Q: What sequence folds into this?
């Protein structure tokens, strides 16, 4: 089964000091690594970025946040505005070790109940590598438009199922797929 993907590439990259999407890991920009990992499970790939022109070279549709300044929540709103389908797999561009096998496994778990399906690692929900159902945002739109809610509050407020850490370790024993690169010290 394939699903539409939204890759978030619009962060401010303050801690990195430059655009994280283009930071190389093992000689390949992080965004290219994420695209390669999700491509086998993707019916479509859409990039959500603050500066769309920088990402056109990848050959996928690119959209700027429709509501600026709301971080990942802006990206999710934009994704549901521009992507067809009842579900969207959202992943951040700064997860350069995500594996196609983990992506495939999460997709296979996608029929679990709730407004979202999130892996849980170390007791923390991984909202930036998760499947969201259309309609999840509806009851939050007024607050989103007023910029009166942050992604973490939204994530805590929705109904969701989890893909448990033990399940994920069967595929990725070291859970490298969930390593998030935010600053130069996070690089190998």
A:
């Amino acid at each position: 089964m394939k699903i539409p993907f939204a890759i978030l590439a619009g962060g401010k990259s303050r801690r990195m000091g430059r655009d994280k999407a283009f930071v190389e890991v093992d000689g390949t920009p992080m965004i290219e690594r994420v695209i390669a990992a999700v491509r086998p499970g993707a019916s479509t790939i859409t990039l959500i970025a603050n500066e769309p022109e920088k990402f056109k070279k990848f050959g996928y549709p690119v959209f700027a946040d429709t509501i600026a300044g709301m971080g990942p929540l802006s990206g999710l709103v934009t994704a549901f505005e521009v992507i067809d389908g009842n579900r969207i797999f959202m992943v951040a561009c700064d997860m350069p070790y995500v594996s196609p096998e983990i992506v495939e496994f999460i997709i296979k778990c996608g029929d679990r109940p709730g407004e979202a399906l999130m892996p849980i690692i170390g007791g923390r929900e991984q909202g930036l590598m998760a499947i969201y159902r259309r309609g999840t945002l509806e009851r939050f739109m007024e607050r989103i438009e007023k910029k009166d809610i942050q992604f973490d509050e939204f994530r805590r407020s929705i109904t969701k199922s989890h893909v448990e850490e033990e399940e994920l370790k069967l595929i990725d024993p070291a859970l490298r797929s969930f390593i998030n690169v935010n600053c130069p010290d996070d690089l190998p």
